[in-house]
Each structure stands twice: as C-alpha cells, then as structure tokens.
Amino acid sequence: MTDKAKAKGGKRKKLMPVLVILILAVLVSGGYTVWQLMHGSTNKAANVNKGEPAPAPVFFALDTFTVNLVNPDNDPDRVLYVGFTLRLPNEETRQRLNDYLPEVRSRLLLLLSRQNAASLANEQGKQALVKQIKEVLAPPLVPGQPSQVVTDVLFTAFILR
C-alpha cells in the first residue's frame, strides 16, 4: 500500500465515529422533539378540560320592529323592518329586561325611528346602530336598579325599504 492510501484509510477510520455520533445526536434530538410535541399537546388538552366550562350564553329575543325612517325628501315609504336578539352577561339582566319589556321596546322604537335610511344601508351604519342600541338600553329602567349591560346585538332580520 502506498502512503496516500494509508492516509485515506486512517482518515476514514477517524471520521466514522464522528459521523456515527453526529447521526445519533440528530436522531435523539428529533425523537425528543416528536415526543415533546406529542406529550405537550396532551398536557394542554388536559389543562383546557380541567378549566371551568364556559358559561352558557344568555340571549333575549325581541319581536321585530317596523318603523318609518327619517329621510330628506319626507318619503313615508322609507321603512325599516328589523329583528334582533340581545346577548346578555347573566340571567338577572335577562329577567330585568323581560320584566320591563314595554320600557325596553319604547326606548328601541324611539331610537329606530330616528335612524336615516342612507346610513343604515352600509355595514358601518349597522355597526353604529348596534352601538346605539347598547347605549340606549344601558341606563337603569327605573330609579334604584342597576344599569343593563348588553354584550352584543345580533340581527335576526333586517329589511330596509
């Protein structure tokens, strides 16, 4: 054998253990990563299941409203037909709104009859109406009672004619 061949063979013998160690390190780290992902996701799922269940939503459906709308040309045929459901934080608020339903409907009718047909025709107008509904229902219905909190207003019917 020549000196060159002996040198190549010696380098290969020294390089083989290094390659084996490197391959083992990659396999171990890959296996650990897979194990961590599998083990970590089950821990997260267990933690979510241990938490308190989300409270059931409290909804208060109102009958539909039909009102004449304000418009610049005083056209009496501009009509809004709207139905919505209120999302409330608790059952007490739902019961209070139900007990004072005539007051609630009166506030809403006055608010809806002040609306402009042009502003309700787009998404921003509808979002503004949701905000106004929350604001008009917030004050106490009678003196001495707490304010109402309306979490959301969900439209169930909306016809603008």
TrEMBL record:
<keyword id="KW-0812">Transmembrane</keyword>
<keyword id="KW-1003">Cell membrane</keyword>
<keyword id="KW-0283">Flagellar rotation</keyword>
<dbReference type="Pfam" id="PF03748">
    <property type="entry name" value="FliL"/>
</dbReference>
<comment type="function">
    <text>Controls the rotational direction of flagella during chemotaxis.</text>
</comment>
<dbReference type="GO" id="GO:0071978">
    <property type="term" value="P:bacterial-type flagellum-dependent swarming motility"/>
</dbReference>
<keyword id="KW-0966">Cell projection</keyword>
<keyword id="KW-0969">Cilium</keyword>
<protein>
    <recommendedName>
        <fullName>Flagellar protein FliL</fullName>
    </recommendedName>
</protein>
<keyword id="KW-1133">Transmembrane helix</keyword>
<dbReference type="GO" id="GO:0006935">
    <property type="term" value="P:chemotaxis"/>
</dbReference>
<dbReference type="GO" id="GO:0009425">
    <property type="term" value="C:bacterial-type flagellum basal body"/>
</dbReference>
<keyword id="KW-0997">Cell inner membrane</keyword>
<keyword id="KW-0472">Membrane</keyword>
<dbReference type="InterPro" id="IPR005503">
    <property type="entry name" value="FliL"/>
</dbReference>
<keyword id="KW-0282">Flagellum</keyword>
<dbReference type="GO" id="GO:0005886">
    <property type="term" value="C:plasma membrane"/>
</dbReference>
<keyword id="KW-0145">Chemotaxis</keyword>
<comment type="similarity">
    <text>Belongs to the FliL family.</text>
</comment>
